[in-house]
Amino acid sequence: MEKTDVLVIGGSAAGIVAATTTKSFYADKSVMLVRKEPQVLVPCGIPYMFGTLESNEQNCVPDEGLANAGVTLKIAEITSFDPENKTCKASDGTEIEFEKLVLATGSIPTKPAWLKGTDLKNVFTIPKDKIYLDTVRADLDAFKKVVVIGGGFIGVEMADELKKIGKEVTLVEMMPHILAMAFDEELALEAQGLLQSRGIKLKTGSGIKEINGDGKVTGITLNNGETLEADAVVLSIGYRPNTELAKNAGLAINKMGFIQVNEYMRTENSDIFAVGDCAEKYSFITRTVKPTMLASTACTEARIAAMNLYSLSMIRLFGGTISIFCTCIGDHAFGAAGVTENLAKERGFDILTATFEGIDKHPGTLPDTHKQIVKLIASKESGLILGGEVMGGRSVGELTNLIGFVIQNQMTVDALLSSQIATHPLLTGPPTAYALIKAAEMIAKQQRA
User: Fold this and answer.
1) pLDDT value, residue 110
2) Of 4, 6, 30, 52, which alpha carbon lies 20 to 30 A from 211's?
């Protein structure tokens, strides 16, 4: 029987942060992280293993961070755990006794039961599994025509990366536009135009009906009856929480399949916590249950859980996810935080919106200057910022984070207008026409009209 004070199951982003933060806040406690993968991938870097990176090893998280923090690493699969007796059984035959347990079991790619042909040869998913993805990368080298199903972030990034290595790529999305869950129409159309300019074919507004082939894939049929030839198909149509272990142990699972937790990431058992893709999520704005799965959210949850393992603090609780995203298509970046205009209206908010188009450097004659578009969504009555969308150059990532901070700190349009910003010709838009401030100004004018 092995023994540890804190046991973390799962070795991706949430598991790593939970383990290292626990050691930081409770240095006298022993911490063990158990994972089944010999090597862990950087989750958000997975699409870039197929084009930008020279080898898959370049997308691995080094284990030195765990060792340096004093975390014990064990490579095995936990097959079951007993919440009452506080023991786990591992695939290598050992049992582990714990005081506190953190479940960070992640998510699994969706393969819908209704979709015919998912088991054909050369139909691939994108799990966080290096051994499987090593095989996928090698297999894709032999193919010319690749169809990517799903126009979310991973699908878009996969399509772009596969095009970089000379594949004929078609991206299929059932919604009218790609990235439709994160962006309103105007920015989604910008992203579509960029993909098409890079040689990627788009099929939007009609989802997949079935995958065709006899033994191996030969193409797909869309809901509208159109058929597309394919040597390989990449399924990127979502992920489901990996909660079988928790379910078998008797923990409560919500209607979306996530482990139920409170704002401290604690389950109904006070000694068991769940974080990351397997854990329940609530909207920061509406408090409704959400299926969002993000590495950034997972890391926040992991820190909250780790800091509250042995004692609860009112300032260390999770207020809900704001759905914050960013991605790149070539040199053009896109980001979003909070609700879209469409979602805000769907949720019943009375809103004002404004979109300002500027530049991300100043003067605009500087090399590599991009146009920068910022859209803000705010409550008409209070002026509270509910969401924002951004397009521009590489500074978009941090500008998206800034909008996220604005939302989480419940800033209003007036508060944003009186905020002080740092600007530099090479790093930001001009102080006289800073896109985020100008968009807020446009909303303020509507309020006063």
Assistant:
1) 94
2) 52
